[in-house]
Design a protein that fits this description.
It contains nine helices and eleven strands. It has 331 residues and is an alpha+beta fold. Strands 2, 3, 4, 5, 8 and 9 form a six-stranded mixed beta sheet that branches. The protein has a five-stranded antiparallel beta sheet with strand order 1-11-10-6-7. The chain is globular, with a radius of gyration of 19 Å.
Length: 331
């Protein structure tokens, strides 16, 4: 192994360990019977998440520096690869597919087409006639510019092939994510980038959601009747790091009125002029306050809360939000 490979291998190992530490602290915070300990564990999980993001960016930087055709980039070029925008007055809602019983709405900013975020929905109709299943996917390419767009295109291509030829895999979140990881691994290595991804399958007949989170923020599950979050567990390794990674399937029960929310970290990591982070807790509070509205209304309320928080400060990362509200379960 060359010295260059050793350096990259060390960074990849560090990313893996940060992911494991994040998962441990996050899961432990939900199991702790003491609020003080739970708060401390959540804080530690947040620190590990930030460390992982720094390491992923460092891996990309080092790989570019070690590339034989790498060239020095001036400040203007680096600036061109950054994004900076304000929330629009009218949100550009995506056209999404759904199934009877699920009210679905999604927005991806600054634009659905030129962005590292990708959100899609898949009504699943299996040969045996099972109905009432909906797959939701949100991926986030770690980076900006054309490399991020290229990786996002790879995600769309692989998913498109699966949707055309293997609908059964869409009903098995673990198999789907493993397939995506195998297919995207070469592209991730070439682009020196990684993909975080969450895939959720909502099954109305069984009253159950199954999901896999590959390095992505876990979905928010809101119990509308109780007006509180039901915490989820199971954050796993991000896409593109280990081609042979096995992903485990997580499950949670569903009831009519429940709300399932997927989001990118551009929302959670938005900062106001005081350098305060919007954070997951503010997101959850906004979702609970708006739970009586339909899916579009909830999305508008969350972005409205974010806009108030930002106080005209610009966003510097893509911000994507998808809300699925269950109108009926067990039909």
């Amino acid at each position: 192994m060359s010295k260059d490979d050793v350096i990259l291998d060390i960074i990849l190992g560090a990313i893996r360990r940060e992911t494991e530490a994040f998962r441990y602290y996050s899961d432990a915070s939900k199991q702790s019977p003491y609020p003080e300990t739970s708060a401390l564990l959540r804080q530690l999980a947040e620190e590990e998440r930030k460390h992982r993001r720094i390491l992923v960016q460092e891996f990309a930087n080092v790989k570019k520096l070690l590339s034989p055709d790498s060239q020095e980039q001036d400040d203007s070029l680096l600036e061109a690869n950054r994004i900076r925008y304000h929330l629009p007055a009218e949100l550009p809602f995506q056209r999404v597919r759904t199934v009877p019983g699920i009210d679905l709405a999604a927005v991806s900013l600054p634009t659905h087409f030129i962005s590292g975020d990708y959100v899609e929905s898949y009504p699943v109709h299996l040969p045996e006639g099972a109905d009432g299943q909906l797959g939701l996917l949100l991926s986030d390419v770690m980076g900006h510019g054309m490399e991020a767009v290229s990786l996002k295109a790879g995600v769309r291509q692989v998913l498109g092939e699966i949707a055309d030829d293997d609908w059964e895999r869409l009903s098995q979140a673990d198999r789907l994510v493993e397939s995506l990881n195998r297919n995207l691994h070469p592209l991730c290595q070439k682009a020196a980038g990684f993909v975080t991804l969450c895939y959720v399958l909502l099954d109305l007949q069984r009253g159950e959601m199954s999901y896999v989170s590959a390095g992505h923020e876990l979905p928010v599950l809101i119990d509308s009747a109780q007006g509180q979050e039901r915490p989820l567990e199971g954050n796993q390794l991000l896409i593109g790091l280990d081609r042979d990674q096995k992903y485990s399937l997580e499950r949670a029960s569903l009831r009519a009125g429940d709300m399932i929310v997927l989001f990118s970290d551009g929302i959670m990591e938005a900062f106001n002029p005081r350098e305060e982070e919007f954070g997951r807790q503010r997101l959850v509070e906004s979702l609970i306050e708006s739970r009586s509205q339909d899916a579009r209304g909830i999305v508008k309320s969350v972005f409205g809360a974010l806009d108030d928080f930002l106080k005209n400060e610009a966003l510097t990362d893509e911000a994507t939000l998808a809300v699925a509200k269950l109108k009926e379960v067990g039909r």
